[in-house]
Design goal:
two-stranded parallel sheet, mainly alpha, 492 residues, two-stranded antiparallel sheet, elongated, Fumarase C, Chain A, domain 2
């Protein structure tokens, strides 16, 4: 299968998923080719009408050298030489994963398909051909520029063939990386949130928490679409749950506020999905070419700040915060299962009355470590200072926000594994089964981490790490009221 792009409306989250997760290639459609050919001809007519007029990166040098004009005779040669610009990014932080690089290459094409890149169709086709391999290696760390130039220079170097006037800036200037990072986070986030709802519902069952905190009557009282979604999700997973042998008093706060906190996670996921959807189809070039209209028969070129994406980094920060809050609830609930008996409020949960069980107190210790790391990653990401010059005085915060969201997400995967294992243990110790929709999840958890019994010398840490990777890969994504998605074991 191949994704065909003819206009910016073809740059959707689903197309992004096909290219990045499904490994599909991209073909430039005939409508896009015609739009690019027409725009290129108009741009060249505009340029030839006055090669001394200011066009950033075409008639002048870019960046801090913006005040240096390029003589008309040197403009074509300068464009051809620009692709040999060295990759100067040597910052730490590793490289972006291959599927994220594919996403950046795909997102870069949105500026081309309707002619705003002022480039020939062959340039877009060469960029699309990168998806067939080999892909350039793009850095995750070391991004300190006012835009995404340091990330996109390896893309420019990897494109075969010569460039002409105005075309190199269309490759390295803009914010396709921000769009791709948001889209990557959005795709993973929806599955991660689904897994979290399932695991917290399993914890509700394990703890015998009253079900009234998830009552349908609350939907009309709260009137928030995201909290309603959380209420419905929890009830779907708890459908058919037994009302017997539950607490006769309120459960701890961490159980009663689940719909509110999960609702905030729904809100954060929706925000990053919106940021990704808009960003994928946005024109972000600097400069951007606007095709001819009645007032500008040859079109016009305007300098913009499109390379700064103002939606993505706040959305990623909010997502990291939502993950950190869910880690906190998981830590509280693991602790509640462990200390309930000793506090005199509950029968034993993690150990059998005859003493059977493992060193389950260690689950809380590890969850606390995840909580500390998640909270550190959930600090707000703000605009950073730029380079030490007056022109490039503000840098982009997107990569920092993306790294922090990834860290918080990894912590949530680990915390969910611990809560799921603890819930499984509590159900085993009390000889109970959860609500029917949760039984496939429980089977999946126990296929990786069986209940602990003493004496037990298993390498439980390895098993929990494996279970965390199951959650991280989206292998457990049971929708409310549906059967579990089967998946092969994630290798250790």
């Amino acid at each position: 299968m191949t994704v065909v792009v003819d206009s910016r409306q073809d740059f959707t989250l689903e197309a992004f998923r096909r290219v990045t997760r499904g490994g599909e290639g991209v073909r430039i459609g005939p409508q896009a080719r015609q739009a690019m050919e027409s725009a290129r001809a108009s741009f060249m007519a505009l340029l030839d009408s006055d090669r001394t007029a200011f066009i950033y990166g075409t008639t002048t040098r870019p960046g801090i050298e913006v005040g240096r004009a390029l003589p008309p005779a040197e403009q074509r040669g300068y464009a051809r030489a620009a692709r040999r610009h060295p990759n100067v990014n040597f910052g730490g932080g590793g490289a972006l994963e291959e599927h994220v690089v594919r996403g950046i290459v795909f997102a870069r094409l949105a500026n081309f398909v309707e002619g705003h890149a002022k480039a020939r169709p062959v340039i877009a086709e060469r960029i699309a051909a990168l998806l067939d391999g080999p892909l350039p290696v793009l850095p995750l760390g070391g991004q300190v520029g006012p835009g995404e130039v340091l990330t996109l220079l390896p893309v420019l170097s990897a494109v075969d063939g010569d460039f002409e006037e105005g075309e190199t800036m269309a490759v390295v200037n803009g914010s396709p990386a921000a769009a791709a990072l948001a889209a990557d986070a959005a795709i993973s986030a929806r599955d991660r949130l689904s897994s979290a709802e399932q695991v917290f519902a399993l914890s509700v069952e394990a703890f015998r928490a009253p079900l009234e905190a998830y009552d349908a009557a609350l939907e009309a009282l709260w009137e928030d679409e995201h909290e309603v979604a959380a209420l419905r999700g929890l009830r779907g997973h708890l459908a058919g749950a037994s009302g017997a042998d539950r607490l006769t008093h309120q459960a701890p706060v961490s159980y009663r506020i689940l719909p509110r906190v999960l609702g905030q996670a729904h809100r954060a996921v929706a925000a990053v999905e919106h940021a990704a959807s808009v960003s994928l189809r946005s024109v972000t070039d600097n400069p951007a070419y606007l095709p001819p209209d009645d007032d500008h028969p040859l079109g016009r070129v305007i300098s913009t700040g499109g390379y700064h994406n103002g939606m993505v980094y706040p959305a990623l920060s909010a997502l990291a915060a939502a993950w950190a809050d869910l880690v906190f609830l998981a830590e509280r609930q693991v602790t509640a299962m462990h200390v309930g008996a000793s506090a005199g409020h509950l029968p034993p949960l993690l150990e059998r009355p005859d003493g059977g069980g493992g060193r389950t107190n260690l689950l809380g210790w590890v969850t606390g470590s995840y909580l500390d790391d998640a909270r550190a990653a959930a600090t707000a990401t703000l605009l950073p200072p730029g380079l030490a010059d007056a022109q490039n005085d503000v840098a982009v915060p997107t990569f920092t926000a993306y790294r922090k969201q990834r860290t918080a997400a990894d912590c949530l995967d680990g915390a969910l594994a611990l809560l799921a294992a603890g819930s499984s243990q509590a159900l085993w110790a009390t000889d109970r089964a959860p609500a029917p929709p949760l039984r496939p999840l429980l089977d999946r958890v126990r296929s990786v981490v069986a209940p602990l019994d003493a004496p037990d010398d298993r390498r439980i840490g390895d098993e929990l790490g494996r279970l965390a990777r199951v959650f991280g890969t989206g292998a457990v994504t049971v929708r409310a009221g549906h059967a579990a998605t089967s998946s092969a074991d994630v290798p250790a």
